[in-house]
Design brief:
By secondary structure, this protein is α/β, with parallel strands linked by helices. It contains 18 helices and ten strands.
């Protein structure tokens, strides 16, 4: 038996005919740019299942397909989805850790503490985002309606994001085929300024601009039509952002909308939409906004608010508390000579009631002043709530409980308040404005919110659907 086996492997003259073929194959392979991955296929060659977090085949099955025929070419969308799938697996693995501190090294900052829902998962997600995430900014459109925005008003986060995206220094790609998300660079605030008809209850002119812009980019590029807008991004800090997007149903229902007006009663969907922090840069300066806090002995005010009478919530607040209490201090206009910033720093709690809409710049103002935010709104989704646990450093009071504000706040123990104040200090870095942006600041956190929404979807183009049918 052994002799028969050896005889089968004896040299035969016909083997000489194979030498030129072997040499030709070796030369051809040497020219391949990806020869380092031979003989195993690249992970990008794996066919993904419809379940977003798993590969559909093992390396053995992939090798069997490779050996049985020519190498498959993969579409742009399939390559992008493969990169995202790899990130999902890494983040899910990191999420298994129950540690209060990330295990990943980082020269700038290592997330730790209870303010994070899962420090390890957040950190790994952030690192994966920095490594892989690419945003393409459409170049169509001209200022002032596109590619620019306000930098000195309550809409400053909208303008700052647009400016940073146009700079192209972080996350942006000039090659749309390499992008995971496509940014529609219109400024909602500037459209209201130039197109809104005073006194009108609808904004059809702005809705028409939205619709025309999407018609243009969907005619020039394949990306909108491939995903029905799901991997496209709009960002708006004006209250009318949700309304304007409703003029394009696919934009409203499918696209990632980053909105200051994160009102779930007006169609805000936290699984695909993200909250944009509202930051009022009154002078355009952002240095010195954080700090200058007072010791507890000088925080003599229980709760503070000052602002104009905007919307139903403030009507209720003023009816019960406007200039009626020495501990719950509520003004429509501050007395002459009184500093707004000093009042924030002298207060233990800062009241953040909704205005005409749910968002309020006072939330970030309170964080800057190390004053515990008290959000008074029924339908608001706070910024970055996928990552940070707002319940540990802020309070939420329903509108119907406004008459009980004082008793609610006095019921917070000193121990709990001390922890909340410390955690407010810990989250400040995530709301800090920097130009250029710094890792973990508000710009990076906004991008991370977008990254999470893109990870939360799996887009299949017609080509991948056809491939799955054939197999």
């Amino acid at each position: 038996m052994i002799k028969m086996a050896l005889n089968r492997h004896r040299f035969h003259p016909s083997y000489l005919l194979m030498i030129p073929v072997v040499v030709l194959l070796a030369f051809t392979y040497a020219q391949r740019p990806d020869s380092s991955i031979w003989p195993l296929p690249s992970p990008l060659w794996f066919k993904r299942a419809r379940v977003v977090s798993h590969w559909s085949c093992s390396a053995t099955a992939a090798r069997r397909r490779y050996d049985s025929g020519p190498v498959k070419s993969y579409s742009r969308l399939q390559r992008a989805e493969a990169v995202l799938a790899t990130a999902r697996v890494a983040i899910k693995e990191a999420a298994r850790s129950c540690s209060k501190r990330s295990v990943y090294p980082d020269p700038d900052y290592v997330p730790r503490g209870l303010i994070y829902r899962n420090p390890n998962a957040f950190h790994r997600s952030f690192l994966e985002m920095e490594k892989s995430f690419k945003i393409y900014v459409y170049q169509e459109g001209i200022p002032p309606l596109f590619h620019t925005g306000f930098l000195k008003t309550v809409y400053s986060t909208e303008g700052l994001f647009i400016h940073e995206m146009n700079k192209g220094q972080v996350f942006q790609t000039s090659d749309p085929d390499k992008a995971h998300v496509y940014f529609l660079p219109f400024s909602m605030a500037l459209m209201v300024r130039y197109l809104y008809v005073p006194g009108a209850r609808q904004i059809p002119e702005i809705g028409l601009v939205f619709a025309d812009y999407i018609n243009v980019i969907s005619d020039r590029y394949p990306y909108w039509n491939q995903s029905h807008g799901a991997d496209h991004l709009m960002l708006a800090c004006h209250d009318w952002g949700p309304l304007a997007s409703s003029y394009v149903p696919q934009l409203f229902n499918n696209s990632i909308r980053v909105l200051c007006n994160a009102n779930t009663s007006e169609g805000f969907n936290p699984s695909k939409d993200a909250t944009l922090p509202e930051i009022n840069l009154k002078t355009g300066e952002f240095s010195g906004l954080i700090g200058g806090t007072l010791p507890p002995s000088k925080q003599t005010i229980l709760a503070f608010f000052a602002g104009r009478l905007h919307g139903h919530v403030r009507h209720v607040l003023f009816d019960h508390w406007k200039e009626k209490d020495n501990e719950v201090v509520v003004y429509e206009r501050l007395p002459n000579g009184t500093s707004y910033d000093s009042m924030l720093r002298r207060s233990k709690f800062c009241l953040c009631p909704s205005g005409y809409e749910v968002a309020s710049p006072r939330i970030v103002e309170a964080i800057y002043a190390e004053c515990v935010p008290v959000m008074i709104s029924d339908k608001y989704v706070p910024p970055f709530s996928d990552v940070i646990n707002w319940d540990l450093f802020s309070l939420k009071i329903k509108v119907r409980d406004i008459p009980n504000i004082k008793s609610i706040l006095m019921g917070v123990s000193q121990e709990r308040y001390t922890k909340m104040k410390r955690r407010v200090r810990e989250v400040q870095r995530h709301f800090e404005v920097n130009v250029p942006p710094k890792r973990y600041d508000v710009f990076y956190m906004i991008v991370h919110s977008i990254w999470l929404r893109r990870l939360n979807m799996h887009i299949q183009d017609s080509r991948s659907t056809q491939d799955s049918t054939e197999e």
